[in-house]
Amino acid sequence: MVRIREMEEADVDAVSAIRVRGWQSAYAGIVPGTYLDAMTVEGDAQGRRTWFAHPLRQSTELVALDAGGELVGWISCGPYRGSVPGGRPTGEVYACYVRPDRIGRGVGRALLGEVHARMGERGFQAVSLWVLGDNRQARRFYERADYRPDGGTQDDVYDGVTLTELRYGRPLR
Questions:
Q1: In whole angstroms, what is the distance from residue 168 CA to residue 143 CA?
Q2: What is the pLDDT of residues 57-75, one digit of tens each?
């Protein structure tokens, strides 16, 4: 059982640890090891503090806490960035990470469910997200949550290696 709440500035270090460890776990064998090894919690937290305090930030940041109050997941969402697929009001999941030792215990599902509810309340009719094409575990997770690839792709370069992201989307009920 998890409790979802708005992220607070005091959560930055824990969120950065989840994000960095999440990258290093989920993207091992996909993103070059040199890139993953160079990631630090401290570096991520420094940038996240600046970004979190930005007065024009449009994103919503939520965290998941386990029964003992430990932060075990984080999700970021907001308006879709770019041309809206399908022309309807669309939100976007910018990032979703769960502490690697808590994957498969419903944390990600709870975070995603809360984001869907909040986006629906904001008037979004659909939600999109980007996932690395080679990240089969994440793709299965999103597909179980009724996301489907919609044909959108974009390339990102990590230490000289080009990786393709796929856009997934789903309607909001």
A1: 9
A2: 889 999 999 999 999 999 9
Distance of CA 101 to the CA centre of its chain: 17
Q: How far is CA 4 from CA 73, 103, 105, 140, 150, in A?
A: 9, 16, 14, 23, 29
**Neighbouring-strand partners of residue 69:** none
Chain segment 83-124, per-residue pLDDT in tens: 776 778 999 999 999 999 999 999 999 999 999 999 999 999
> What DSSP letter does each residue of 138-150 carry, written as one string?
HHHHHHHTT-EEE
Alpha helices (runs of H) in 12-74, residue ranges in sequence order: 12-26, 33-38, 41-52
Cα-to-chain-centroid distance, residue 61:
10
pLDDT recorded at residue 51: 86
In contact, 165 and 154? CB cutoff 8 Å? yes
Structural domains of the chain, with CATH: 3-171 (3.40.630.30)
Percent of residues in the chain assigned helix, strand, coil, to nearest 5: 40, 35, 30
pLDDT (average), residues 2-30: 97
Structure tokens at 151: 């044909």
pTM of the model: 0.94
